[in-house]
Design brief:
Elements lengths: L1 E6 L10 H12 L4 E6 L9 H21 L4 E6 L3 H16 L4 E5 L12 H13 L2 E4 L2 H11 L4 E3 L21 E8 L6 H13 L5 E8 L3 H10 L4 E3 L5 H10 L2 E4 L9 H8 L3 E4 L5 H4 L7 E2 L5 H12 L2 H18 L2 H16 L2
Parallel strand pairs: 1-2, 1-3, 3-4, 4-5, 5-6, 7-8, 7-10, 8-9, 10-11, 11-12
Helix pairs in contact: 2-3, 3-4, 6-11
């Protein structure tokens, strides 16, 4: 089957995106289908409005050409429920509808994932896209309940994110004899709670907790702020840029805790699943589907949104109880290996495709 699949750039050096990570995993592992990647979104660092508009115009023109030449049978539209993404992807949806190609809408977080837009235009866009799609995929039963009720959708599919099988094969022996390394890996954006982390680090260092080292990996609008902060605290804060491949595996292998105090717009982060599969203990907020994914005190720890103080308390408690870290690390990794096998994910996705085309 020829499938057009949307995502920002799949080149990790040009874009840090959970959607791109999911799409890379799908393309690499689903050999039953031929995927044609359509770039939806701008590269990190592209600040020029003119360049963005020209890129969009070029993309939509190439989309129509692609439909004519590649025999696309289905569109897998990956959508973050944020205003810019919704406006942009609605045009893809309309062009696909014009060519009478069925669309599967795959939801990936966003500020309007668990609440309806108040803006009348965005409200209509969401209603039209979700009710006209041949299938809607979400990341958790909680998301399914909300989407089904709010948009009167009878059949919403739940497909929790997965990660590359290489993470399940890591034979990791965790060393706790030195510093405890705390990793943030993802988009350096205000919504991820980056400034809350920096505030917590400042307080921890002021209080003399020098046996903690914070590692930031990623790119985004707050990159320069993180770099500057790391420069002020070189012994306890590192900015490692974008991590991929073997380098990424090495960083995961050297860290003990994973921090993601998201403020809004989270789905089910791929970075979180990768970290847990690698034995890192997550310290996260209950934003999005993370609230149904983590069992507090068993497979990770919750902190309140915006609370640097609670992050401090949680980290101090953990570094004073290494056995607790060991136990939760084991639980987190086992939870992922038991429930997030890539083969099962690909089978479920292919079944959705088949169902859509036989309706």
């Amino acid at each position: 089957m020829n499938i057009l699949i949307t995502a920002p750039s799949l080149d990790v050096t040009k874009n840090v995106s959970g959607i791109s990570a999911v799409v890379n995993t799908i393309i690499e592992n689903n050999t039953l289908h031929t995927y044609h990647h359509f770039v939806a979104g701008n590269e990190d660092g592209n600040r020029s409005i003119v360049k963005r508009l020209l890129q969009l115009l070029k993309s939509y023109t190439s989309l129509a050409r692609l439909y004519k030449t590649k025999g696309v049978q289905l569109v897998h539209l990956n959508l973050a429920m944020n205003p810019k993404s919704m406006y942009r992807d609605y045009l893809i949806f309309l062009i696909s509808t014009l060519y009478k190609i069925p669309v599967v809408v795959h939801l990936h977080g966003g500020m309007f994932l668990l609440k309806k837009p108040t803006n009348i235009v965005l409200k209509n866009i969401a209603q039209r896209m979700l009710t006209s799609a041949r299938a809607v995929i979400c990341l958790s039963p909680m998301e399914k309940d909300f989407i089904s009720n709010q948009y009167s959708l009878p059949q919403v599919k739940v497909l929790q994110n997965t990660v590359s099988g290489s993470y399940f094969q890591l034979n990791k022996t965790i060393d706790y004899s030195g510093n405890i390394n705390v990793l943030f890996m993802g988009r350096l954006h205000e919504s991820k709670g980056i400034r809350v982390i920096l505030e917590a680090i400042s307080k921890l260092l002021e209080d003399g907790h020098l046996n903690l080292c914070f590692v930031f990996c990623g790119a985004g609008p707050l990159e320069s702020e993180v770099m500057q902060f790391a420069g002020l605290h070189p012994d306890n804060v590192q900015y490692r840029g974008i991590a991929a491949g073997i380098r990424k595996a090495k960083i995961l292998g050297a860290c003990h805790l994973f921090i993601l105090p998201s403020l809004y717009g989270e789905g089910l982060p791929v970075a979180l699943i990768e970290a847990m599969a690698s034995g890192l203990v997550p310290v996260v907020t209950d934003d999005g589907s993370m609230k149904t994914f983590i069992k507090d005190g068993e497979t990770g720890f919750f902190v309140d949104k915006g609370s640097a103080l609670q992050i401090c308390r949680t980290l101090v408690e953990l570094i004073g109880n290494i056995e607790k870290i060991r136990t939760v690390s084991f639980n987190a990794r086992k939870f992922i290996t038991d429930n997030f096998a890539i083969d099962s994910y690909i089978d479920s996705l292919s079944n959705i495709y088949t169902t859509v085309l036989t309706k």
